[in-house]
From TrEMBL:
The keyword S-adenosyl-L-methionine does not apply. It is an enzyme of class 6 (ligase). It catalyses: 5-phospho-beta-D-ribosylamine + glycine + ATP = N(1)-(5-phospho-beta-D-ribosyl)glycinamide + ADP + phosphate + H(+). It comes from Mycobacterium sherrisii. This is Phosphoribosylamine--glycine ligase. Coiled coil: none annotated. Residues 107-312 form the ATP-grasp domain. Its cofactor is Mg(2+); Mn(2+). PANTHER family: PHOSPHORIBOSYLAMINE--GLYCINE LIGASE, PHOSPHORIBOSYLAMINE--GLYCINE LIGASE, CHLOROPLASTIC. Pathway: Purine metabolism; IMP biosynthesis via de novo pathway; N(1)-(5-phospho-D-ribosyl)glycinamide from 5-phospho-alpha-D-ribose 1-diphosphate: step 2/2. SMART domains: GARS_A, GARS_C.
């Protein structure tokens, strides 16, 4: 089977690596890719937002399966174009991708499916902002305001703060730039990312993971697209994991079928495990970054066959997904000033090492690998347990040089020290 992967981040690099281990995958193509992905796949250029261009490329490379990594093409309907051309695609239709693209749609689906989630309100009129801030957040209620950009913002549009001025300033600046604002109630409790391969009503859950969204150690500083992750979660009881699948993901998948927008692809449940049980923070319509890098490092089943089964409507026959023993940790190496405007164009030393996945990298005319984005590399360590996987990841990081770069030193640390309590 020949597989075309669309995207250019560390998530797509991780997908390629796992696909390359599948004996039935005979050819890999990535578009547009980055400086690291060319070692695993033929690299092509494409406008990832154009269904027509992706279909033309898929035909040109004789792809049997197209895997669409990022949310933007999915929300724009690129998967529909691929399917209409008769090519198997892993990724939801434009209609189903609204679970990520439209917060209002996601809330409607969750309400109909009886799934717990934060209460929320969308503000698009600056005149309504102050009254809405009174209804969400301190004093006397939630410990913090949760202010989100109600358009696709790669995780960076989220501010969680106990400071009203900070909450107001963020909301006002989003409104000024024409973005509606989503105010949400605060869900207290450790967060879980659960990725499920879904084909209509069939749900195949992957290992649970945890993402670290703040830029600094101890969950300090602004939100980012994700600074690291680990899997599995030693502190998450099996019965809670099963509850998430049977009481949250399966009812949502069934509700999407009932509405005539069946989901086919990766349904990502972002959850908080609150004192009253799991509740949904958000749904995404694709693999999450950086959790994918950790989850797929432990996958033993053939990824190409799994994604092909979902894309071709035969997931129910795939059976159980198998996993390697142990743990995986991914740590993101970010450019100076990220999540603000990152410094780019610096030469990276050591990025070819095993366990290093590329995100914001490119090859300069002289052949040097240079930084080209905020999150530059994802370093993945594996080991018999979380402690071993952490030391592996941080050992690899020590061998990498990128001027001005930074990373979190505490990815998975609380879990390793058994300090996460439900
Ligand atoms: N892990 C955050 C995201 O992929 O949106």
């Amino acid at each position: 089977m020949r597989v075309l992967v669309i995207g250019s981040g560390a998530r797509e690099h991780a997908l390629l690596l796992a696909l390359s281990r599948d004996p039935q995958v005979t050819g890999l193509v990535i578009a547009p890719g980055n400086a690291g992905t060319g070692r695993l796949a033929e690299q092509r250029d494409v406008d990832i937002t154009s269904g027509e261009a992706v279909v033309a490329l898929a035909r040109d490379v004789a792809a049997d399966l197209v895997v669409i990594g990022p949310e933007v093409p999915l929300v724009l309907g690129v998967a529909d174009a691929v399917r209409s051309a008769g090519i198997v695609c892993f990724g939801p239709s434009k209609d189903a991708a609204r679970i990520e693209g439209s917060k209002a749609f996601a809330k409607e689906v969750m309400a109909a499916a009886g799934v717990r989630t934060a209460s929320s309100e969308i503000i698009d009129n600056p005149g309504h902002l102050d009254a809405a801030l009174e209804r969400f957040g301190p004093p006397g209620g939630d410990p913090a305001w949760v202010v989100k950009d109600d358009s696709l913002a790669a995780g960076k549009g989220v501010v969680v703060t106990p400071d009203r001025d900070v909450a107001r300033a963020h909301a006002a600046s989003l409104l000024e730039s024409g973005h509606p604002v989503l105010l949400e109630s605060f869900l207290d409790g450790p967060e879980v990312s659960l990725f499920c391969v879904v084909d209509g009503a069939t749900v195949v859950p992957l290992l649970p993971a945890q993402d670290f969204k703040r830029v600094g150690d101890g969950d300090t500083g602004p939100n980012t697209g994700g600074m690291g992750a680990y899997a599995p979660l030693p502190w998450l009881p099996d019965h809670v994991y099963r509850d998430v699948v049977t009481r949250i993901v399966e009812p949502v998948a069934a509700e999407m079928v009932r509405r005539g927008s069946p989901f086919s692809g990766l349904l990502y449940a972002g959850l908080a495990i609150t004192a009253n049980g799991p509740a949904v923070v958000e749904f995404n319509c694709r693999f999450g970054d950086p959790e994918t890098q950790a989850v797929l490092a432990l996958l033993d089943s053939p990824l190409g066959q799994l994604l092909y089964a979902a894309g071709s409507g035969t997931l129910a026959d795939f059976g159980e997904v198998r996993w390697r023993d142990g743990a995986a940790v991914t740590v993101v190496l970010a450019a100076e000033n990220y999540p603000g405007r990152p410094r780019v164009g610096d030469v990276i030393i050591g990025s070819e090492a095993e366990g290093v996945l590329h995100a914001g990298t490119t090859v300069r005319d002289d052949g040097a690998t240079v930084s080209s984005g905020g999150r530059v590399l994802s370093v993945v360590g594996t080991g018999a347990d979380l402690a071993a996987a952490r030391s592996h990841a941080y050992r690899i990081l020590e061998s990498i040089r990128l001027p001005g770069s930074h990373f979190r030193s505490d990815i998975g640390l609380l879990a390793q020290e058994s300090k996460i309590e439900l």
